[in-house]
Write a structure and sequence with these properties.
56% helix; 8-stranded mixed beta sheet; 859 residues; 28 helices; transmembrane; ABC3_permease_C
Length: 859
């Protein structure tokens, strides 16, 4: 029975098996990848949000100000008793007294201190420089201790009541505080700019010492009570939601417990990570909804590939199918014969595609963990694709055999149908969809604003690039079809290699136009996806660089900017000082040309041009030499009250800190000492971390202001990442379609192997050189691949260039997103195209060299 021998018979055409398996692999790969991409995006969003939150903010927070001293122990006891039942470890409790005015050290009653206690603080989270934390007592900060000469063993007093003794000196917490202290920044860190230098936070070495101190001193209430849990950061949305549900249950139990004691309002439970979970869920939904149309397109392409394999199998098995039909086999049985022969390769290829999608997730997908059920869902999607593929394979064969062997050759109707499908203007339909997507894309960025955590979602706008590329591909294919129809008029026998290439293309118009459409769509989609994804990644880097001006920006006291205090030696190598003036309609940046390039980040600006203009800021002449920033041709030269007008020595479209606003950059050497003293704002731009900068300034007695920012924290990067993750799937789709296009080209060469072998052998016998025949094949294949590469790259880059600014999730901040350098991508695609053409040409020539002319003629 042919059905029983079908798996062995399939080995007679290994290329067909490979094509069937690879087609199923690609379809299942894309279907599974869409599910995994969305789930990984959710995990990456949770990871990003976890990095922004304080490490004790993933679980519940119990806090309240002005808690009566007698009530606080009951609140702490309730939380500690209920926490284990909900899977939480013991909470970290923080307690702070109000500032105790008139605290006395060494007979001086002018100190103001807070007594504090935090669980685990003395176990590695406070840097003890003198004394010990083992004995019960208080730890005093070194700022006050060194300034006032206070030693360990001192016993402070408050209106005659003694404190516990000072048993150790700790290094004051830096501003900003270390990450473990993140949630305690307001209470545990003393801002030296806003507070008197004699202010200090004294940490009790244990809870008993704290309780004894407030009892002895008669402190009626705890200024701040804070209880939190240091949980492992959630890696997936399901983990975050489970943590959230357990937190809600714990808060409810604590509230009920305290309510039973008549203390229902003694503490407030909160869920600071709840908003982060909502944003992560939204990020996953955005990515999934955005890539669903692309995933549907990819699966349809895979199904079309299975249909093509079915038609090729039908053509190759036509005599056997006619014989079996004549013996009584029905269309359904013949369709099952195709499944018996090609089903195993399709199933194996599909399973391999699903597995490959999981293995390569780290290459193409977001850097996040998969959520619960993502692998199962992806496997189910792959299974459905396999069932549809097998059903399509059987259905195509059954339909063809039914039409040909049971209804007879209804040539007129079929020809009319095929002709109608061929002449139907499909490109007008796709152009209409692309136009509809463009109308949505124009308004896509209007929801971009400060405080909006994620960009809006409009799947139709996201399909605009794909349909533009598809429209161009269909239009190119139609023109190629018409050109090949008219190619019989070509008379180029003086160049036989070229003439033969044209005739071969004309004899295979359908495969040629099909490969051209798929190739153009693949390359165009790849260029668009990579262009938009990388464009948003570069936009994030550029916007943060221009906004901050450096890796770190810290506003500082004027004594640093005016030169009264020298920069600390630890940061001088990569730090510069800039001043800022406003009030005349222009933003005026006062820079030091000699050190500006050490600390500033230029982003897209031409470094050589910036150096040239900075060097010209000392040029002699009337007014103050200045670099004009912005594009307003009518910009006024006024700088600030009491300063001469600006004399423009050059122009730049944007500049760090100023951005694209109207402004000027001047040299500090152009200003007198009195004018420098009048500059209201001075900032340090540094390549060092925030901790390094603040510690260096503190070491020379300079207090930093609250205005400080780093490139990492300046912008919410998640909206940029979501756009990038979405279009990385489009790039993946383009890469897979590229593989399909290569396979289609190789299949087209293989299908015409006998015809090409016979024609090639005959022309060689007629005197054509093998080199000329190879050149003919390379002209044929090179023309086809070259058109696909050129049209795809040009169209993809153009569409990406139009789309990148409109997908910008932060249009409120200059500069707008721009297309990254497309040259590397274009060169890579060109190199791959050359390799594919060389391989196809080698296959074609190999069939000619191994051909047996007599057998081919008899066949």
């Amino acid at each position: 029975m042919p059905w029983r021998a079908a798996p062995r018979a399939a080995l007679s055409s290994p290329l067909t098996l490979i094509i069937a398996a690879v087609t199923a692999l690609l379809a299942c790969f894309l279907g599974t990848a869409a599910v995994l991409q969305a789930s990984a995006a959710g995990g990456a969003a949770v990871k990003y949000q976890s990095g922004l939150a304080c490490p004790d903010y993933y679980g519940p927070i119990f806090s309240k100000d002005n808690v009566p001293a007698a009530v606080a122990p009951q609140v702490i006891d309730s939380v500690r008793r209920n926490a284990p039942a909900h899977g939480f470890a013991q909470p970290v409790t923080s307690r702070y007294t109000p500032y105790l005015l008139g605290t006395e050290f060494n007979g001086d009653p002018n100190y103001k201190v807070t007594i504090a206690h935090r669980d685990q603080a003395v176990q590695g989270h406070l840097d003890l420089v003198d004394g010990t934390a083992a004995a019960g007592g208080l730890l005093l900060g070194t700022v006050v201790a060194k300034a006032e000469g206070i030693k360990t063993g001192a016993v402070p007093k408050l209106q005659g009541a003694p404190f516990p003794p000072v048993t150790g000196l700790y290094r004051d917490l830096s501003d900003p505080a270390p990450r473990w202290w993140c949630s305690q920044q307001r209470n545990a860190v003393v801002s030296r700019l806003a507070n008197d230098p004699l202010d200090s936070v004294m940490f009790a070495t244990d809870g008993k010492t704290f309780d004894d101190a407030i009892r002895t001193l008669g402190v009626p209430a705890i200024a701040t009570l804070h209880m939190s849990f240091y949980e492992t950061p959630p890696k997936t949305i399901s983990e975050a939601e489970d943590l959230l549900e357990r937190s809600k249950a714990l808060i409810a139990d604590v509230k009920a417990d305290l309510g039973a004691r008549g203390l229902g309002d003694a503490v407030v439970g909160s869920l600071p990570f709840e908003r982060s979970v909502e944003i992560s869920n939204q990020a996953e939904s955005n990515v999934l909804i955005s890539i669903l149309p692309l995933a549907a397109i990819s699966i349809l392409v895979g199904c079309a590939g299975i249909g093509t394999v079915a038609l090729q199998w039908y053509q190759r098995r036509h005599p056997q199918l006619r014989l079996l039909s004549a013996r009584g086999s029905g269309p359904g049985a013949l369709g099952l014969l195709a499944v018996a022969e090609l089903g195993l390769p399709i199933v194996v290829g599909g399973a391999a595609g699903a597995a490959l999608a999981r293995l390569l997730l780290g290459v193409y997908g977001p850097p996040g963990e998969l959520g619960d059920g993502a692998l199962l869902t992806g496997s189910l999607v792959a299974a459905v694709i396999l069932l549809v593929s097998l059903g399509l394979l059987a259905g195509v064969i059954a339909f063809r055999t039914h039409r040909e062997f049971e209804l007879g050759r209804v040539r007129s109707g079929r020809r009319k149908g095929v002709k109608l499908l061929a002449i139907f203007p499909w490109e007008l339909v796709t152009a209409g969809v692309a136009l509809l997507g463009w109308t949505r894309l124009v308004d896509y960025g209007k929801g971009s604003r400060l405080g909006n955590p994620l960009p809006q979602v409009d799947p139709l706008a996201l399909t605009y690039p794909v349909f533009v590329v598809l429209t161009v591909g269909l239009l190119a294919a139609r023109l190629a079809w018409l050109g090949l129809l008219a190619s019989h008029r070509a008379r180029l026998w003086s160049r036989p290699a070229l003439q033969l290439a044209i005739r071969r293309l004309a004899s295979a118009r359908a495969p040629v136009t099909g490969v051209l459409v798929i190739g153009t769509l693949a390359i165009g989609t790849l260029a668009t996806g990579i262009g938009i994804a990388r464009g948003q990644e570069e936009a994030l880097q550029t916007k943060s660089a221009i906004f901050v001006g450096a890796e770190t920006r810290v506003d500082t006291e004027s004594v640093v900017g005016t030169g009264k205090v020298a920069l600390p030696s630890g940061i001088t190598g990569n730090t510069t000082i800039v001043g800022e003036l406003t009030g005349t309609g222009n933003v005026v940046l006062v820079v030091d040309p000699r050190t500006f390039r050490r600390g500033a980040t230029l982003a897209r600006l031409d470094a050589a041009e910036v150096d040239r203009l900075l060097g010209s800021l000392s040029s002699p002449g009337p007014g103050i030499p200045a670099i004009r920033i912005g594009t307003d041709a009518n910009q006024k030269p006024a700088l600030a009250a009491g300063l001469p007008e600006a004399r423009t020595i050059g122009e730049m479209p944007m500049f760090p800190i100023i951005g694209t606003k109207a402004g000027y950059v001047i040299s500090r050497e152009s200003l007198s000492a009195a004018q420098l003293n009048a500059v209201p704002k001075w900032s340090l731009l540094s390549g060092s971390s925030m901790t390094q900068v603040t510690e260096a300034l503190t070491s020379v007695g300079v207090a930093t202001a609250v205005n400080r920012v780093t490139r990492e924290s300046a912008l919410d990067a998640l909206p940029f990442y979501v756009v990038s993750w979405t279009f990385s799937f489009m790039a993946l789709l383009g890469a897979v379609l590229g593989v399909v296009a290569v396979l289609s080209l190789l299949v087209a060469v293989e299908v015409r192997r006998r015809q090409n072998a016979l024609a090639g052998a005959l022309v060689l016998r007629m005197g054509m050189r093998p080199r000329a025949l190879l050149a003919s094949h390379l002209m044929e294949l090179g023309t086809l691949s070259g058109l696909a590469v050129v049209i795809g790259v040009v169209c993809g880059i153009s569409v990406a260039g139009l789309s990148v600014p409109r997908f910008d999730p932060a249009t409120f901040l200059a500069p707008r997103s721009a297309l990254p350098n497309p040259t590397p991508l274009a060169l890579t695609v060109l190199a791959v195209g050359v390799l594919v053409v060389a391989l196809a040409g080698w296959i074609a020539m190999r069939s000619v060299r191994t051909a047996r002319t007599a057998e081919l003629i008899r066949a």
